[in-house]
């Protein structure tokens, strides 16, 4: 099932998420639906709050980008209850976009490498290091689980420049080629 994607301004995107306690048929269905929703919107990552679920769950698949940019690795993951427990000192700037912020792309500075722990779709625990593009996408999705948008991380100058655009978006001024939803509470 393809879910509508919640747009900036919807309170669920700023709500605290809950850890997932156990595997279930419902969880497996939700994971499958999240991949389907992400692919239908041509996204490379989707976090549960973006479909209105306050859960610590995100899916990532960078395959579409790796096809056009061979230097970008293919990176397909389900992340349950992830935790970044270490970040490298070196920061890199990369342009980001988000399905919940259609029409906005901004440079964001983030650590180039991270160490994370998470459970995969089979509830198997992983402890891994990501560098470069994988670390980038992961950190973006991780932020969604903690009520943060990439636009919260841009420079003060860029924040000022996009303020009106964000305010308009929160009031329904945006265009997207996928199903969206916006709520006021
Ligand atoms: Ni996003």
Brief summary:
By secondary structure, the chain is of the alpha+beta class.
Tally of contiguous helical segments: 4
Poorly predicted tracts of residues: none
How many β strands by DSSP? Answer: 9
Question: Which range best describes the helical content: under 10%, 10-25%, 25-40%, 40-55%, 55-70% or over 70%?
Answer: 25-40%
Strand order of the largest sheet: 2-3-4-7-8
Average of pLDDT: 96
In angstroms, what is the radius of gyration?
16 Å
Question: What ions, cofactors and ligands are bound?
Answer: nickel (II) ion
Task: Kindly report how far apart the N and C termini lie.
Answer: 24 Å
Strand residue content: 25-35%
Structural class: alpha+beta
- Main beta-sheet strand count, sense and barrel state: 5 strands, antiparallel
What's the order of the H and E elements?
EHEEHEEEEEHHE
Shape: globular
Which structural traits does this protein have?
about 180 residues; alpha+beta; 5-stranded antiparallel beta sheet; two-stranded parallel ribbon; 4 helices; 9 strands; globular; binds nickel (II) ion
Q: In words, what does this structure look like?
A:
With 185 residues, the chain is an alpha+beta fold. 27% of the residues lie in helices and 27% in strands. It has four helices and nine strands; from the N terminus they run E-H-E-E-H-E-E-E-E-E-H-H-E. The chain has helices spanning 25-40, 63-68, 133-145, 156-170; strands spanning 5-6, 45-47, 57-61, 76-87, 91-96, 106-111, 113-119, 125-131, 180-181. A five-stranded antiparallel sheet has the order 2-3-4-7-8, with helices on both faces. A two-stranded parallel sheet has the order 1-9. A two-stranded antiparallel sheet has the order 5-6. Strand 7 (113-119) and strand 8 (125-131) form a beta hairpin. The longest helix has 16 residues, at 25-40. The mean pLDDT is 96. Bound molecules: nickel (II) ion. Nickel (II) ion binds next to helix 3.
